[in-house]
Every structure is written in C-alpha cells, then in structure tokens.
Amino acid sequence: MSTVSTVNGGISFWYADEGTPAPREPLPGDTTADVCIVGGGYTGLWTAYYLKKAVPFLNITVLEARFCGYGASGRNGGWLYNGIAGRARYARLHGHDAAVRLQKAMNDTVGEVIGTAAAENIDADIHHGGVLEIAHSPAQLARLKDFHSVEIAFGETDRVLRGARETAERVHVTGAVGSTWTPHGARLHPAKLVKGLADTVEALGVTIHESTPVTEIKPKHAVTPYGTVRAPYVLRCTEGFTAGLKGHRRTWLPMNSSMIVTEPLPEALWDTIGWDGRETLGDMAHAYMYAQRTADNRIALGGRGVPYRYGSATDNDGRTRPATIEALRDLLVRFFPTTAGTRIDHAWSGVLGVPRDWCATVTLDRSTGLGWAGGYVGSGVATANLAARTLRDLIQQDSGQAGPTDLTTLPWVNHKVRRWEPEPLRWLGVHALYAAYRTADRREATSPQAGTDRIAKAADRISGRG
Ligand SMILES: Cc1cc2nc3c(=O)[nH]c(=O)nc-3n(C[C@H](O)[C@H](O)[C@H](O)COP(=O)(O)OP(=O)(O)OC[C@H]3O[C@@H](n4cnc5c(N)ncnc54)[C@H](O)[C@@H]3O)c2cc1C
C-alpha cells in the first residue's frame, strides 16, 4: 500500500471530490440584523435554516471566517448518528428520564436531517444503514455489552447485539468478536450536506458573508476587520475554532481528528470485505476508529492522531502528520488485510470542540442575547441539527413569540461548565490522557481479561470524561 501519492490536507477529500464552493462576498461594512450567526458549519447553517423557516421576515446574517463548511462540517467521517456527548452526566444532574428525553430527541434528529435534506433536494449521498460498532478483544467485548445494555436502558430498544459469526455476515473485520448495531444512524457525504445547506439558506433569504473572521463577540455585536454587525441576538457557532475568539481561549478545547480515504475498491475486494449494508463502522477502543463505505466505494477511516496542539492551535487547511497517515493506514490494514495493496488517495484532519466536562451544550443567555451551541466532542453531525432547532425555540421564547417547548426543556440547555486549565497544563493533560488510552488499548488487545484496563478507567476519572 502506498501513501507516496496521498494528498495531505487541502481541507478534506470531501472537497477534492465535490469541489470547493464559489466564494461569497465578505462583509462590506457596518450593518444590522435581527440575528447574527458566527460560523458557517452545520450548527450555524441549520440555525439559520430553522429560524428563517419559522419567521420568514427575520433578517439573518451569517459571518464565516473562510467558507461555509471549512471546519469540521466539511471534514468529518459522515456518521449521522444519535450519539450525544454528556448524556451520563445529564442523567446524574437531571435524572434518568430527562436524559432519556434527550436521547429520544437525538434518535429523532437522524430522521429529521434525512427528511429535511430530501425535502430541500440536498443530495448528500445519505444511506440509512445504521451504525455498527465492533469489539476486537475480551475487554472491548465486555465494554460493548455494557454499552449495549446502557443504550437499551436509555430507550433504544431497537438496538441489537451480534456475535462473531453474525458480525462477519455484515462485514469481515479481522479479529472481530462481536458487535452492536442500531438503526439510528446513516452514512453521508459531509461537504455535500454543508454546501447544500448553505445554498438552501441563501435561497431562503439569509445573508452569508464569507472570508469574514469575527474577532470578538459581545452583547449585540459581532466585530470583524471589515465592520461590525449589530443584532439583538448574536450566536457563536464556531465549535473547535472557538479558542480563536477574544476571551474564549479556554472555553472549548480544539481536539484533532484525522482521516484517510482509499482509492475506490474493486468489486473483487469488496467480496472479501462484505459491508453491503454500508453501516457506519466503529470500534470499542479507547482511542476509537470510525469509518464509512463511501458512495463511490472507497473506505474513509478516521482516528485520533495527535490529539491536541499546544495553545489551542488548529491545523493548516487540514494537513495532518505523515506519522498519523501511516498509523491510520496500519489500522485500515489491521481491520481489512486485503486492502494491503490499496492506494490511500487523501488524508486530512480537523478540529472538534471539547468542553472541560465533555458535555455538549446549547445556550441562550437571555440577559445579553448571546447564544452558542457546540462542544459535541466528535458527535456533532446530528447534534448540530438538534442544537439549531433548540436555538430557534429559545429565540422565539425570548422574543415572546412562543413558550417553552419540548426542546427548550432538554437537560443540555443552558448547561454551565468550567473552563480548561491554562497552558502548559492543558497540553500536558490531554497528551497524558491519550497516551494512557493508547497504552490501555495495547494492553487490552493482548489480554485475556474481560474488564476495561485500569489505566483507561483512571484516565476517564481524572479527565472528567466518564
Ligand atoms: C475529522 C473529523 C471527523 C468527525 N467525524 C464525525 C462523525 O462522523 N460524526 C459526527 O457526528 N461528528 C463528527 N465530527 C464532529 C462534527 O463534524 C462537528 O462536531 C460538527 O461538524 C460541528 O459543526 P459546527 O458547525 O458546530 O462547527 P464547524 O463545522 O467547525 O464550523 C465552524 C465554522 O466557524 C468558522 N469560524 C471559526 N472561527 C470563526 C470566526 N472567528 N469568525 C467567523 N467564522 C469562524 C469556521 O471556519 C467554520 O466554518 C468529526 C470532526 C472531525 C474534525
């Protein structure tokens, strides 16, 4: 297998495939809006979409530093699924039933995205094949069974557990000893979705200014080098890039995730792999992998790589380290040995937002009109849609157009979290955490023990991730 010809960066394979969109005009000067949205990813664009649909006369402006979809929304693994970061903590804080409501809302969100994309004629290569997560070792299998029972306790009664043989009937992953499958997931092409969304909201009358970095957000103001947008509501939808805004260096940690994509695989090779259901595919490792079979029959596979850059820095247009490309390629071959001679066409990375307590949040501060959503910790494709509908409802409630709704009363709304430690503690902490997870994964791979490695348990406790 060769990585010599692998394109590294260039935002992502999804844009190499789809083409980068024609640029929109930057902000021409000072202006006003009813709602100003900072960031043109899924969170910002879905929010613009639902607000405009609810109140068509609203004057909405989206300010985007580069182009819509430049961030994680144009680079992710294309898992549209029902996972939400922080559910266990929300259950502890608000009770089990509240967390079940949150989970049900996430289950429904998968269908909401699929249905809305279809209604708006956004062709994002969506395939509703569910999510298949596999175990490779006794420890992973024990974790998988626990995970399966917990999901059922949170109302996902349609989830199934499969043994090694049944798993192999779906996809031949070397060494797989079991799996769990849920119907609440779909595969999609991330850039096609975000591009389609941007075009859709623009057609609805939302103003989008690209190449317009916001330097500071303050009540009723979004400040840029080209002028200021004044609006009663200013919404921060910048997820992994939030640390770049004045006053937010320690709000959410920009965590890296990296991906590779193979050349299209020939039918004969697919015969050795199976995966006809095109489920999104993951594993139960602590430094887990995620993968999809693309519409044009490639394998796109991601994992952690270098978890975090000092000082909350982000990558250079998606470039990732050659060592990360090699590590992901090795992982691919370990999963599917028959891909050993396959070309890796593209590799890239991106950042996702991690709050100090690993809990996704959506907030509208009614005293200032400032709102935000994010901290999805790698499960943002569907969660951003739920956040957007919630921001719509919170704004409608605040402006007296509606009362509380099923969404505004979900336990992740207006959740407060402390900030990350200053450097160098932040860097040291995250690198120590992922070193611990990698060690735990190595030990579990060769251990006959069924329990989760104690190093990983300690890392979960210390990091606040558990
Ligand atoms: C490699 C990778 C794989 C992933 N895989 C999955 C997956 O398979 N499934 C899943 O559920 N989640 C996944 N995620 C997470 C998911 O993609 C994100 O949580 C989600 O896309 C976040 O959307 P967003 O709109 O909040 O943020 P982004 O998509 O990051 O959008 C933020 C936007 O804000 C802009 N911006 C930043 N700063 C400023 C500023 N100062 N002024 C103006 N604009 C600004 C950026 O340019 C960007 O376009 C993955 C993430 C990565 C990086």
From TrEMBL:
Ranges where the FAD dependent oxidoreductase domain occurs: 34-394
Sequence segments annotated as region (Disordered): 445-466
SUPFAM superfamilies in the record: FAD/NAD(P)-binding domain
InterPro entries, sorted: FAD-dep_OxRdtase, FAD/NAD-bd_sf
Residue stretches of biased makeup (Basic and acidic residues): 454-466
Organism domain of life: Bacteria
Name of the featured protein: Glycine/D-amino acid oxidase-like deaminating enzyme
